[in-house]
Design brief:
Blueprint (H helix, E strand, L loop, with lengths): L7 H8 L27 H14 L2 H14 L4 H13 L3 H14 L4 H13 L3 H14 L5 H17 L6 H11 L4 H12 L13 H15 L3 H14 L6 H12 L4 H11 L4 H13 L3 H14 L4 H13 L3 H14 L4 H13 L3 H16 L6
Helix pairs in contact: 1-4, 2-3, 3-4, 4-5, 5-6, 6-7, 6-8, 7-8, 8-9, 8-10, 9-10, 9-11, 10-11, 11-12, 12-13, 13-14, 14-15, 15-16, 15-17, 16-17, 17-18, 17-19, 18-19, 19-20
C-alpha cells in the first residue's frame, strides 16, 4: 500500500470520507469518458508526472496521468491506489470503485484498499456489497491508514444498525463518539441504536428527527461514559416521549447496565406499552438473572425466545434460567441451540459447560472447554 500521508489525501478525506449522505457528492472531474492512453509517453514519464501532480494537489492532472499510467502498466498498484483516492476526493465514486477493485486484486491482504472500496460502494448506495467489503477491510486491519479506518468503521457501524444488528455497533460507537463527538450523523446513529430503529441516518423521516436526535444525544453520552449526562438526557427523553416505542427500553437498558433498581420497572413499562418488544423482555430476563432470581426470569426469557427464536441471546437467557431452576435437560437443549446460533459467543460455552457438568456429561464438558480455549486464542479483527 502506498503511503497515505500525501498532500492530496487530507483533501480527499474531507470530501469523500465525510459523513455526507450516500450519493450526495457529484463528480467534478472532466474527461473520465475519454480514452486514458497517451501515445508516445513512456510509463516512467507518466508515473513521474502523475506523482508530481499528486504531490502538488492538482487532481485533474494527476488523474489524467494515473489513468494513462495504469493503462500502460495494469500492475502499478500505487497508481491504482492514488487514482482511487483522487477520484473519491472529486466525488467520482463509480470511477473510484473501479480503480479500487484493481487495488484489492493486486493486494488482497491490505485492509485500507478494501475499506476505501467499501466506502465508495457505500456512497453509491450499494449497501450489501459495501457491508461485505468494509467488514473485510476492517477485519484485515487499517493501522496503515487510520483516518480511512475511522471513516470505514463509521460507515460500517451505520450499515450494521440499518441491518438491525444492535449488538456489534456498541463497541464501535464507544470508540467513535470519543473522536467524532460533534458529528451530527453519529448523534443520529446513537439515537437509532438506542431506539432500535434499523435505518440509516439519511432515512429518518423528518417527523422523527427531533426524537431521534434527542435519543442520540442521550445514547452518545452513554457510549462516551458520561453517566450523569446520559441519565439526565434519558430522563428528559422519557418525560417528553412517554408513549413512544423504545424510549423506556433505552433508558431501562442504561439503568440495567448501571445495576440500578430502577431498571426493572422502566423495562417493564416498555413491555406494558409494547408487549411485542422482544429485546425488552430479554433485558428483563437478564436483569432478573443478575439479581439472582432465576424463577422470575423464566417467563420473560420464554417470551424473548418465542419472539426472537433465531437469537443466541434469547436462547442463552432461557438456558441460564432453566439451569438455575433445575431443568437441566431443557437447559442443555436451549444452550446448544444458542451455541449453534452464536458460535462466537463465549458466555454461551461457559454456561453450556456448566450444564453438561450438571448433566454428568463429562466428555461434552471437556469438548466445550476445548472450544472455549480455541475461541479465546483466536485473533480479533485486525490482529
Amino acid at each position: 500500500m502506498a503511503a497515505v500521508s500525501r498532500r492530496l489525501l487530507p483533501i480527499a478525506l474531507v470530501a469523500c470520507l465525510s459523513s455526507a449522505a450516500p450519493g450526495a457528492a457529484q463528480c467534478t472531474l472532466p474527461g473520465l469518458a475519454d480514452p486514458p492512453r497517451m501515445p508516445g509517453i513512456p510509463f516512467e514519464e507518466l508515473s513521474q508526472r502523475a506523482t508530481e501532480a499528486w504531490d502538488a494537489g492538482r487532481a485533474e492532472e494527476a488523474v489524467r496521468y494515473f489513468r494513462a499510467g495504469v493503462e500502460l502498466n495494469p500492475l502499478w498498484h500505487d497508481g491504482w491506489w492514488r487514482l482511487g483516492l483522487t477520484l473519491s476526493d472529486a466525488g467520482c465514486h463509480e470511477a473510484a470503485r473501479d480503480a479500487l477493485r484493481r487495488v484489492v486484486q493486486l493486494k488482497p491482504g491490505a485492509g485500507p484498499g478494501w475499506t476505501l472500496l467499501g466506502l465508495s460502494e457505500y456512497r453509491l448506495g450499494s449497501y450489501d456489497q459495501a457491508f461485505a467489503d468494509l467488514t473485510h477491510g476492517v477485519t484485515l486491519g487499517v493501522a496503515a491508514a487510520p483516518e480511512i479506518g475511522k471513516q470505514g468503521l463509521h460507515a460500517l457501524t451505520l450499515l450494521l444498525i440499518r441491518r438491525g444488528d444492535f449488538s456489534a455497533p456498541s463497541k464501535n460507537l464507544a470508540i467513535l463518539v470519543r473522536i467524532e463527538a460533534d458529528d451530527s450523523e453519529l448523534v443520529t446513529a446513537c439515537g437509532l441504536m438506542a431506539l432500535r430503529r434499523p435505518q440509516l441516518p439519511s432515512e429518518v423521516p423528518a417527523a422523527d428527527r427531533t426524537l431521534v436526535t434527542a435519543a442520540g444525544r442521550a445514547g452518545c453520552a452513554a457510549f462516551a461514559g458520561q453517566k450523569d449526562e446520559a441519565r439526565l438526557r434519558f430522563q428528559e427523553l422519557v418525560a417528553r416521549y412517554p408513549g413512544t416505542r423504545g424510549v423506556h427500553f433505552a433508558y431501562g437498558l442504561l439503568l440495567s447496565r448501571e445495576g440500578s433498581p430502577e431498571a426493572l420497572p422502566t423495562l417493564r413499562r416498555e413491555v406494558e406499552l409494547f408487549p411485542d418488544n422482544a429485546e425488552a423482555h430479554l433485558e428483563i430476563a437478564f436483569d432478573i438473572l443478575e439479581r439472582g432470581n432465576p424463577s422470575e426470569a423464566l417467563a420473560p426469557a420464554r417470551i424473548a425466545a418465542r419472539l426472537l427464536p433465531g437469537s443466541p441471546w434469547s436462547r442463552f437467557a432461557l438456558g441460564r434460567a432453566l439451569l438455575a431452576t433445575g431443568s437441566v435437560g431443557e437447559a442443555v437443549a436451549e444452550l446448544e441451540r444458542a451455541s449453534a446460533l452464536g458460535p462466537e459467543v463465549r458466555d454461551v460455552y461457559v454456561a453450556l459447560a456448566q450444564a453438561y457438568s450438571r448433566a454428568g456429561r463429562t466428555a461434552d464438558v471437556e469438548r466445550t472447554r476445548a472450544l472455549l480455549q480455541r475461541l479465546d486464542a483466536a485473533p480479533g479483527p485486525g490482529q
